[in-house]
Design a protein that fits this description.
It is built from 20 helices and nine strands. It is of the alpha/beta class and 472 residues long. The strands form two sheets. It has a seven-stranded mixed beta sheet, sandwiched between helices. α15 (317-347) crosses α18. Bound molecules: 6-phosphogluconic acid. 6-phosphogluconic acid (6PG) binds at residues 105, 131-133, 189, 192, 260-262, 264-265, 364-365.
């Protein structure tokens, strides 16, 4: 009955959906495609999908009827209401056991709500992060599925064939129940924001302090990337070497310094606060984008304070910068892994952090050589309390934190904002300080609000009558 029918459907024919469908087809699967506006589907099947095992469908019934059972339908539509909209349209045509895979950047709480709702309807649901942008979708993304385990078993073959591959296997694994897949993708993006900001702060120092040209900076990043093997650093040196066709100038000089964001970084920070987890470098990266976006205000304020860059740093400082960027990048991953560890306990995801690092090794935006030692760290000790103390990184921290400290102190003197670098150093300093001034905070809280405090010398909860409120 299923003969000639498609193995999977991709709904949403924006570039990610198109590329994913082409990728799946290239691995030998028959793929049905559907888009709300049928012209898009038609154009896709006539152009990019021409002569391929890709079937354009033009209404939901046709789409559902074209699939082998249990039906596997991957949604590549915009996160938010459009996901609920497609689910609503699909439901009347689906049968018990059919599978919906949401491959967008959905908010994890929406994924939990949808999982619950769909399980009541006996539809299996996988909230799945897909990373790698357009190129990754076509040539092999990192895929982060979570939700119904039995559904994963059904789609495993297709997802494994579609994902990027490393020596350690395909960059996909079943991550855990409920929203675990989308949570892992959210944190991936938080780390993505932090690494992007750290690289951008490095660029800012290179241009403002050392007056390097984009071409010179490109060469440096290219050299440094031999160590990082980072996708984000790779695109950075390519961008810095790019000339704008219209003006003949380096394109980076033509682009407005006002960053946008779609929310995943912010969600990471919000959730970390809810879980009482400190991820200051990621937080700084989100804030830096926000601050950058108020360009008009920045222009007005700069006119008043006329901040000038003051520095007589020598060229050899660049090598401290290289080490600072390396260790601050490790801290960005560290914060993300910590958030995942705590969220996993809190939300019952039961994440294997070494597997998370493994599936990030290729295909995704934060892929880099650092993921291998991260993977190893959590393999050796699944309950590792923090990557900072892992055997894989201890020496790196010992050797490179002094360089990060040098960069932060010198660049602060030069009047250049480096929120991510500073926050990374504060994170390290805070974590490695046995003594913090929170004793005074506790006293202040108790003074004005009778919030009580604990003592170092005995067990219990204490309060001091700081003021005689009746006689003031
Ligand atoms: C990926 C990316 C991607 C994300 C964009 C835009 O892993 O492929 O994380 O999913 O949507 O990078 O994010 P912002 O608009 O928030 O920068």
């Amino acid at each position: 009955m299923d003969q000639g029918k498609s193995d999977i459907a991709v709904v949403g024919m924006a570039v990610m959906g198109q590329n994913l469908a082409l990728n799946m087809e290239s691995k030998g699967f028959i793929v049905s495609v559907y888009n709300r506006h049928s012209e898009k589907t038609q154009r896709f099947v006539e152009e990019r999908a021409r002569n391929k095992n890709i079937l354009g469908t033009y209404n939901i019934k046709e789409l559902v009827d074209s699939l082998k059972t249990p039906r596997k339908i991957m949604l590549m539509v915009k996160a938010g209401n459009p996901v609920d909209g497609v689910i609503k349209e699909l439901l009347p045509y689906l049968e018990e056991g059919d599978i919906i895979i949401d491959g967008g950047n959905s908010y994890y709480k929406d994924t939990d709500r949808r999982s619950e709702y769909l399980s009541q309807k006996h539809i299996r649901f996988l909230g799945t992060g897909v990373s790698g942008g357009e190129y990754g979708a076509l040539h092999g993304p990192s895929i982060m599925p979570g939700g119904d385990k039995s559904a994963y078993e059904e789609v495993k073959e297709i997802l494994e064939a579609t994902a990027a591959k490393t020596q350690d296997g395909p960059c996909v694994t079943y991550l855990g129940p409920k929203s675990s897949g989308h949570y892992v993708k959210m944190v991936h993006n938080g780390i993505e924001y932090a690494i992007m900001e750290l690289i951008s702060e490095t660029y800012d120092i290179m241009r403002k302090v050392f007056k390097l040209s984009p071409k010179e900076m490109s060469n440096l990043f290219k050299e440094w990337n031999e160590e990082h093997q980072s996708y984000l650093m790779e695109i950075t040196y390519k961008i810095l070497d790019w000339v704008d066709e219209e003006t003949g100038k380096p394109i980076v000089d033509v682009i407005l310094d006002s960053a946008k964001q779609k929310g995943t970084g912010k969600w990471s920070v919000q959730d970390a606060l809810d879980l009482n987890i400190s991820i200051p470098t990621i937080n700084a990266a989100v804030n830096a984008r926000t601050l950058s976006s108020i360009k008009e205000e920045r222009i007005k304020i700069e006119k008043i304070y006329k901040t000038t860059i003051e520095s007589n740093l020598k060229e050899d400082f660049i090598y401290s910068l290289k080490n600072a960027l390396f260790i601050a990048t490790v801290i960005a991953y560290t914060e993300g892994m910590k958030l995942l560890q705590v969220a996993s306990n809190e939300y019952g995801y039961n994440l294997d952090l070494s597997e998370v690092a493994r599936i990030w090794e290729d295909g995704c935006i934060i892929r880099s050589a650092l993921l291998k030692p991260i993977q190893k760290s959590f393999k050796n000790d699944p309950h590792l309390i923090n990557l900072i103390i892992s055997n894989e990184f201890k020496n790196e921290f010992q050797n490179r934190i002094p360089e990060l400290r040098k960069v932060v102190s010198e660049i602060k003197k030069a009047n250049i904002p480096i929120p991510a670098f500073s926050s990374a150093l504060d994170y390290f300093d805070g974590l490695s300080s046995k003594e913090l001034p929170a004793n005074l905070i506790q006293a202040q809280r108790d003074y004005f609000g009778a919030h009580t405090y604990e003592r170092r010398d005995k067990e219990g909860v204490f309060h001091t009558e700081w003021q005689d409120i009746h006689n003031i």
